[in-house]
Amino acid sequence: MKRILTLLVVLTIALSHLPAMAYVAYDYTEYKDALDQFEACAFSAEYGGGGRDYTVRWRDSLNVYFEGDYTDSDIAFFYRFVTELTQKIDAIPEIRITADRYDSNVQIYFTPLDRMGDYLSNYTEGNWGYFTYWNSGSYITNLEIGIATDVTTQRQRYHLLMEEFVGGLGLANDHYLGEDSILYGVWTETQSLTTADWLMIQFLYDDRIPAGLTFEQAKPLIEKYY
Q1: Cα–Cα distance measured from residue 89 to residue 58, given in angstroms and rounded to the nearest whole number
Q2: Which segments within the chain are labelled E, that is strand?
Q3: Is the pTM of the predicted complex or chain greater than 0.85?
Q4: Which residue has the higher pLDDT, 211 or 122?
Q5: Nearest to residue 159, comparing CAs of 148, 173, 170?
Q6: Beta strands 129-136; 139-148: pairing state
Q7: Which residue in 131, 158, 162, 133 sits closest to 59, CA to CA?
Q8: Contacts of 125 by beta carbon, 8 Å cutoff, 6+ apart
Q9: Please, which residues bridge with residue 132 across strands?
């Protein structure tokens, strides 16, 4: 833990001072893809959805704690990703990296595959990456992410970090509508989000579109503002 303490302090300061950026540029095809994928991903969960048919998202800041056999490259990649996330999505809450487990509401565990269940609530056997979140009404309050270390390459961990974190933002289900997407339901090693992926996050965190809406309620607002 000491080896990254200074880095964590720097990242926390940097992330809290990032400027807001313009909305993601897109064309109609990308917008239509995003709307179709949003319907699949934002209104239910891949595992243990409990019949939810409305959107959930974060309202408070995300305080992220790393534990286990992570590498410096894992931390650096995550920092680059959340920097891009904060720059592209105007209304995303603040994202901080903390060295204090008790200050966190997001825990990311790097562990051998056969120990994933020791760290994660409701873990489904065999998944190399996994997340579980808790919500109070329409707002997510806590998130656990697990990344398997003994069966993955560095590149695969990069992919899993993005996939599970995006799922933990509230896009909790997979889709089968575009194989380049970070949320595509068949295993890939894509290293970046598509324009449709970014638009889905934008739809979810747009202040003009309240949390807790069904797709039928959210779609007219998305069509109005996008």
Answers
A1: 13
A2: 57-58, 62-68, 95-97, 106-111, 129-136, 139-148
A3: yes
A4: 211
A5: 148
A6: antiparallel
A7: 133
A8: 117
A9: 144
What is the model's pLDDT at position 23? 63
**What would the pLDDT profile of 109-156 be if each residue is shown by its tens digit?**
999 999 999 999 889 998 999 999 999 999 999 999 999 999 999 999
* Amino acid (one-letter) located at 11: L
Residues 191, 39: Cα–Cα separation, whole Å: 23
Are 189 and 159 contacting, i.e. CB atoms less than 8 angstroms apart?
A: yes
Question: Does residue 22 surpass a pLDDT of 60?
Answer: no
Q: Tell me the torsion sign for CA atoms 89, 94, 99, 102.
A: negative
pLDDT > 50? residue 101: yes
As a whole number of angstroms, the distance between CA 85 and CA 92 comes to 8
Q: Is 24 exposed, middle or buried (0-12, 13-18, 19+ CB in 10 A)?
A: middle
What would the mean pLDDT of 188-201 be, rounded to a whole number? 95
Residue 226 pLDDT exceeds 50: yes
Residue 11, CB-side half-sphere exposure with 13 Å CA sphere:
24
CA distance linking residue 6 with residue 196, whole number of Å? 35
Distant-in-sequence, close-in-space partners of 160: CB < 8 Å, separation ≥ 6: 128, 129, 147, 148, 152
- 142: tokens are 């806590």
